[in-house]
Amino acid sequence: RPTNGIVRLNGKDITKIKDKQISSFRREHLGFVFQDFNLLNNFSNKDNILLPLVLAKMKYNDMIHLLIPVARKLGIEELLDKYPYEISGGQKQRVAVARAIITNPELILADEPTGALDSKSTEELLNVFNTLNENHQTIVMVTHSTKAAAHAKRVLFIKDGQVFHQIYRGEKTMDEMYQCISDTLTLLATGGVHHA
Q: Fewest Cβ atoms nearer than 10 Å: which of 58, 77, 119, 126?
């Protein structure tokens, strides 16, 4: 719940959802990707991905029908029968992304999703997010990574709980976006004044 204000998703004020309905609302409308993956080591990767569908009481055949195209899109088909402890960090994050998108959520919330990844895995994950976004998936990502932020279409800078500044990609190249973000971070660090 927010400390104040209203949060709307597709016109619905989610602050008004009753406590007993909030977990099903999250499961049906939101996908989550975390820095530390949040995968269950005693479940296969396939079972980790299917978990939101199991909780939604979906029939197994329907789950598999959703799983195959998602696994193919993320290049993890050969990892489905393995366990999280048997695969790399980048592969774990792709499994976590599969779990987040299998319910076709309106919104993916990503909390420092590249924080535990090496540069190659980071680039692969950001490319996956770009592809998802191009296919009309909304992604809200919290990051301290200038490189990750440079992939976004819009970047909000938060300072002391307030929007300090924002940048829209528009026609900017990745390098130009990176430079704008770097310049704003310098301003933020030196106590400069910027208005959103």
A: 119
Higher pLDDT, 186 or 19: 186
CA distance 73 to 167: 30
Q: Which of 14, 174, 149 is nearest to 158 (CA)?
A: 149
All residues at 6 or more sequence positions from 179 whose CB lies less than 8 Å from its CB, including other chains: none
Q: Report pLDDT digits (tens) over 56-93.
A: 899 999 999 999 999 998 999 999 999 999 999 999 99
- What are the tokens at 164? 């300090």
Backbone region of residue 139 per phi and psi (left: phi > 0; alpha: psi in -120 to 50; beta: other values)? beta
DSSP helix/strand/coil, 83: coil
Strand 162-168 vs strand 154-159: parallel, antiparallel, or unpaired?
A: antiparallel
Q: Which DSSP category does 16 fall into?
A: G
* Cα angle, residue 31 at apex, residues 109 and 56 outer, rounded to 5°: 155
* pTM for this predicted structure: 0.88
Sequence-distant (≥ 6) Cβ neighbours of residue 113 within 8 angstroms:
33, 34, 35, 93, 96, 97, 125, 129, 141, 143, 148
